[in-house]
Amino acid sequence: MNKEERTPLLETRDLKKYFKTGAGLLHAVDSINIKLYQGETIGVVGESGCGKSTLGRTILKLIEPTSGDIIYNGKNISKLSTRAMRPLRKEMQIIFQDPYSSLDPRKSVIDIISEYMLIHKVYKSKKETYQHAAELMDLVGLARRYANVYPHELDGGRRQRIGVARALSLNPKFIVCDEPVSALDVSIQAQILNLLMDLQDQLNLSYMFVTHDLSVVKHISNHIMVMYLGVCVEFATSDELFENPLHPYTQVLLDAIPEPTLESRNQPFKLIKGEVTSPINPKPGCRFAGRCEHCMEVCTQVTPEYVETEPGHFVACHLVNGR
Amino acid sequence: MEQLNNNGQILEIKDLKVVYKTDLEVVEAVNGISFKIDKGKTCGLVGETGAGKTTTALSILGLLPERTGKVLDGEIIFEGRNILELPDEELRHIRGNAISMVFQDPMSALNPVYTIGDQIGEAIKIHNPELSKEDVEKRVEEMLQLVGIVPSRKVEYPHQFSGGMKQRVVIAIALCCEPDLLIADEPTTALDVTIQAQVLAMIADLRDRLGTSMLMITHDLGIVAKTCDDVCIMYAGKIVEAGTVEDIFSGNRHHPYTEGLFGSIPNLRVKSARLKPISGLMPDPTDLPVGCEFSPRCEKCMEICRTQKPDIYTEGTHKIYCHLYSGNVNNNGETVPEEEKTDE
User: Fold this and answer.
1) pTM given for the model
2) Where do you find CATH 3.40.50.300 in chain A?
3) What secondary structure does DSSP assign to A56-125, as a single string?
4) Summary mean pLDDT of chain A
5) Do A256 and B196 touch (CB under 8 A)?
6) Least CA distance to B269: which residue of chain A?
7) CATH T-level assignment (fold) for domain A3-91+172-322
8) Interface of A with B (CB under 8 A)
9) Which residues in chain B touch residue A265, judged by CB atoms under 8 angstroms apart?
10) Could you report the per-residue pLDDT of B320-335, keeping only the tens digit for each?
């Protein structure tokens, strides 16, 4: 693939987001570089508190980045004012994690889906807007008879479909999906994942798929980025990451998923000690060192470099880099 | 089928029916389920939201909401006695002492204004009034040690702990009276995968060490494969398939819902472009289908499924409630279940 010739739809360069806290600077997102091409999906995986949601929100400029560049369609948007961002908002949307709290309980389904179109004055009349909203309901598989009901009358799967329809209402090119299925049951989860994949094919969308569950991103992503305490520890194509995980943290994440097979029954739990530590004023060295079973002396002193072990496979780990 | 001696089993549920009644409607949450848990074994209760898993657990503990929840029919036999007929006083001795429960959400299961030491101690004091203050404290420290928390942290409050640690505290409370039966209601759903593995390993280890029997409520078949001996798969208040772990994970014949559940899980080892979800949604529990509860969503739905409740099909320990396999359909020659139909 000659990717260099294509321009990415979205690119971040050394993107950082630090929060000021009483105890010091919290490094939520630290030097993240990603490239996302039209029609592709990048999966961002990590435990709670690793900064994956912050990354999604910073890219959309819902939170101001501390430093670094966000380049959307060849244009640097990291310094744009709120007003200058407004036309771009149509092209960049987000689907939220919790379909219960992300929908206005006092608006009916059709009003929720129409809201963005009315704000951006996409159509001349309200009638046209509602017409389009109804078409969106068809697109995401919501029966039109639900147009006038309120969110509390619907179950999680249908609510998440409203969230998807709303995100699509302005014909975006890029959607951040922030754990869109983690609040749903397995059978509904699969329905929504398939819906998102179908829509991507139909509308040539680009997704950034944020999740804590590696198995969810496997099917949907072209590339996967594994995050730990604000930094990217491994980046590879989806197939490569699952076949050849190099970073110890990625291996731990993969091993921790209980597999629904009888063979897994006799294998002991593969455990990792400890929990995600505080990202406030991190010390130099590998941020994963404290929990890593392969930790060497160098890991606690020198921050590992981000190297390309194979074309398209990047890892930040002394173990791999030393080889 | 009826066995009078219940030496081998700690809990037996017979034809349990539970409804939630409000002025407006009657929600049929559990519709005649029967299963038993053998001593020292772990039984998995699997299903999606609204399948009636938690309602089953709450009925075992007598914790159904007083005004709305009602057990219509059935027996819950714990160590030879029907729990449903026990007076409140006696039930109180069982609850938290002989049977205890780990709740789904550790964030809301703990009281934010008491230290965790107090909360563990409370359960010990109530069920062992003869213990002195020092003995209770000692026991609290032992329990914390057991679940892997430094005993000196007993003076801390829940907000000072992370999610995984809080769940350990909840487990310590559940285990402090050495219960014979532990009910774990989705104990790891609110946790990260790495922490989930830690908590599951700990539960499995403690269970083996203390010989506790367990009812594991979950929607994750991976957890079932790892921790359970027997499995009941629930759908809309009914058990649709039951058997040993081997039956469920490797048997030839399965309920279409079970196949659907397996198809919905992204498989880490196999490359496939799409998942095979179950179409449609759970039926409304106030208005369940006349025939098989799963028929509106079932790919293999037949005429008979819409009108008649399925019979049980038994193969050793494996039970399937589905018309596909029940005798009458076979004899009539209407449908021949194919043998090659395997999941995965």
Assistant:
1) 0.83
2) 3-91+172-322
3) HHHHTTSS--SEEEEEETTEE-TT--HHHHHHHHTTEEEE-S-TTTSS-TTS-HHHHHHHHHHHTT-SSS
4) 89
5) yes
6) A242
7) Rossmann fold (3.40.50)
8) 47-48, 155-158, 185-191, 193-194, 197, 212-216, 218-219, 239, 242, 252-262, 264-265, 268-272, 275-276
9) 225-226, 245
10) 999 988 765 444 444 4
